[in-house]
Amino acid sequence: MFRLLFGQVVSLKKTPLFFRVKTIKNTTQITRYSYLFSYGPGLISRFSSHSNPFGIKPASPQDLANRKAQGLPKKLPIAGVTHVILVASGKGGVGKSTTAVNLALALASSNQNLKIGILDADVYGPSIPTLMNLSGQPELNHQNLMIPLMNYGVKCMSMGFLVDEKSAIVWRGLMVMSAIQKLLREVLWGPLDYLVVDMPPGTGDVQLSISQNIPVSGSIVVTTPQDLALLDARRALDMFQQVKIPNLGIIENMSVFICPNCNHHEHIFGENGGHQIAREMGLEILGAVPLNGSICRLSDSGHPIVIAQPSSPVTEVFKSIAEKVIKKLPIQDQTSLR
């Protein structure tokens, strides 16, 4: 017998732990009781003379490694897809989706033989239907696989094709994970050379689910030069390091505003923030995309700037980024690209 912090006397010898928890009627007491035992011998020793009252053997490093390996799902490639590229950001509002779309289109325009797809993994806030000027539900083939919608030569799939555009998706994490699995496994993606995945902002369930279930060739983190955005970009970069996904580089979006009348350069969100974090983490700046009103207007109308203004300076930035990505992730069978 010993007395818990909140005054409840419980026997350690007569009943199993889960029965003892049930005998405490007050919910707060259950939480505190569970909290007490969740911290193990270190906290219990304050109330017991035995240093290890449960006799729990510490796990060896090999046991911990085995448990970790058993707990992770086996990574299975997406049928017919050569490279998967995750375009991510630590926070929303940095232009990640617009960047992902223009990158996919720049990849497609770099060589007409390349086959490109884009997956909208932002279940709660899908943007690809608007950015790619697509609507309607995908059809099913004889294998019950969804056939991606296509525009500008790029295969597209999004949760936005499956629900009404004005309906909020109010789902818990397990339903979101199920939806992501369907978008990965129940879509006729192949054959594709590059699948660009527009990730949701942050470092949550979707990011972990994708990184643990499919082989990912590399990730790209989009940020603005603003200090607040850079803090979250560091978290995104750290997440990819933890799950062992190579980082292809950083795209600094809204890097500078260039006045269309006088050509004056104004660093509205700060200067060279992306370059600083790239130096700190030993990464490459793939490109710096200026703040340009045309990008917003064209994106909202479903005509991305790479398509609408193929010779503009902004498009040239995206084409340069695409070339760097192709060099980092070449297609092995180069004969098909000639």
Folded structure, characterized:
By secondary structure, the chain is α/β, with parallel strands linked by helices. Helix content is 38%, strand content 17%. The protein is built from 13 helices and 11 strands. Strands 3, 4, 5, 6, 7, 8, 9, 10 and 11 form a 9-stranded mixed beta sheet that branches. The chain has a two-stranded antiparallel ribbon with strand order 1-2. α5 packs across α13 and α7 packs parallel to α8. The chain is globular, with a radius of gyration of 25 Å. Residues 1-50 and 334-338 have low confidence and may be disordered.
Q: Secondary-structure map with pairings?
A:
Layout: E1 2-3, E2 9-10, H1 17-22, H2 27-38, H3 41-44, H4 61-71, E3 81-88, H5 96-110, E4 116-120, H6 128-131, E5 149-151, E6 154-158, H7 173-185, E7 192-198, H8 205-213, E8 218-223, H9 227-242, E9 247-258, E10 265-266, H10 273-281, E11 285-291, H11 293-300, H12 305-308, H13 313-328
Helix pairs in contact: 5-13, 7-8
Brief description of this entry?
The protein is α/β, with parallel strands linked by helices. 38% of the residues lie in helices and 17% in strands. It has 13 helices and eleven strands.
Element pattern in H and E = EEHHHHEHEHEEHEHEHEEHEHHH
Rg result: 25 Å
The low-confidence parts are: 1-50, 334-338
Q: Tell me about the biggest sheet? A: 9 strands, mixed
The assigned structural class equals alpha/beta
Strand percentage lies at 15-25%
The coarse overall form would be globular
Q: Report the end-to-end length measured between terminal Cα atoms.
A: 79 Å
Number of beta strands: 11
